Input
Amino acid sequence: MFFPEKLIKVRAFCTKAQRAALVDSLYDFGVIHVADAKAFSASKPLDPFRVISEKLIVLRALASQLGIVPAARVREKPVDALVADFDRLKVDELSAWLRSADDLRRRVSELEERQVKLKPFRKLDVDARLLSSPRLSFAYFAPGPHFSWDALQKVTPGAKGWKVPQELAHDSVVVRDGKDHYVFLAYDSRSDEQVKAALNTADHVFEIPRVSGSFSQAWDELELQVQSAHAEWASVQRRLDWFVQHKAAAFSELLAGFDVAAKKAELPTKFGQSAMLTAAEGWIPEKRLSELQSALDNRLGSGVLLETVPTRETPPTKLNNPRPIRPFEFLVKALSLPSYHELDPTILTFISFPIFFGMILGDVGYGLAMIGIALLMRRKFKTGFFRSIAGMMILSGIWTMIWGFVFGEFFGAETILGFPLHPIIHRLEEEGIMHLMQLSLFFGFVHLGLGFAVGAYVAFREKHFKHMAAKVSWLFMLVSLMAVLSLSANIEGLALFAEYGRLLPDAYWLGLVAAAFVGLLLTEGANAVFELPSVVGNLVSYLRIMALGIVGVVLAGMVNQIPLQPSLDPMGLLAFILFSIAFIVGQVFALALGIFESAIQSLRLHYVEFFSKFYHGGGRAFVSLREEDQRP
Output
């Protein structure tokens, strides 16, 4: 619990013929971090790997498109049975449906793009074949309210006026389509530049599309094509929806089954192999060595040899915390995983983080709201990030309620449904603020002292005695310096430190400061002189607990100033509804901001002030072949 689980490196030998059985045995055992074997040359995947990988690629592609995730738990099956299930589910047919849906989606998109371009021409009853005259040019435009007709009339038409095909009765045609109207213009090609200049004031000049027959006929044909493509697409989509509704569970299990089969088939690539033997190496918890031996014996009999491997390699890190503490592993891993020989600070974070969080937020109502939100999250998320967040929120919410009773606050008020609260520390009164300052500094003192003590213990455990002496010197410097400051300086915020400072005469404390200073010089050199102010600076940093708590109370109090007066008068009722909405929004905002600030500042006190006294991180994660039930 305080240190990562103790691991040992093991090596298993068997014949090449038993390679698949060795894979099954290791996977059934599960809790092994398989490493690249150093014995013999590299091995190859199991024979079914190619078939498995081909099927798995198809399944993963389909799962991504259909939004299906692998099943969390699956009963393992032989590869032949998985392939049979693959065929039974008609996965190839499903792939064809999806390809068809994609093709139809693209076709619909292309047709709709053509519709957009052709729509302004749908009422134009002109045969497009007549627009290929070498002497004539054509324009189609929406004139709009600002179009200058005079500019078009002034265009020099050519030697003998407008030239139009014999089949066209007019040199221009006005097309009306509902509220829109357009103009189709045929003109002498020699006037092309002048016409284009005249059309600059038009709302829009359209590019004339290429169609066969008249534009109105082309529009009708295109509409039929769009409707037909939509109908085909809808038909395929109904098949896909039916599959997701009725076959998603079976598909999810099949995907998980192939995932497991692929992992097992690929595992031998980490094995070593000679002409006759196969060797597998990995890290396991020391206490489970006999369990692994039994698992190998049951499947391979006397044809397997298991041995421990003496090594100076640093093992991977496998955290070993009780279930209630596991959610707080997330906070540690977010910074860095502990190295194998390092103390796991999860248990310490589990104790101090909720206390600091609750002390900042400190409200009975907000604590209840947090617990309610966390319970809903735990109901929805069975594993993963949000499950861990929910576990942390429950404990932090409990401490928020405890501190809420200490401060006498319920959603910023001092009553619970009309029943008065009796605060022990009032955060908005001068005396209460002073008590809160003293309490914040005291918690910081304990937290920092614990950090130095843990650092000394870890150094002693690793036989780094000089480093241990440095941490002990820092601990004595913190204790003695705060005693001296509390006794010599008239600072009311240090009153709690004066209580223990009076246990020894002043000269003794000064002697301890000097001894600690000498110890730091001997262990850390001159750098220790420059780091001395950081001790006081780290301690003062804990005053953020007090400051942020006061800000939160003021914000909640401002929300509570919103007048809520029920009334039967229409205007009074409207005001009550609006003020009620403002009150709810304000409280939600205050809660969200309080949770965010409390979490961020509590994390900062751990990462910067606390962890820096003993924690380095940089561990390599232990990756089990098969996950145990690690749900927080």
User: Anything to note?
Assistant: The longest strand covers residues 7-15. The CA atoms of residues 6 and 348 lie 20 Å apart.
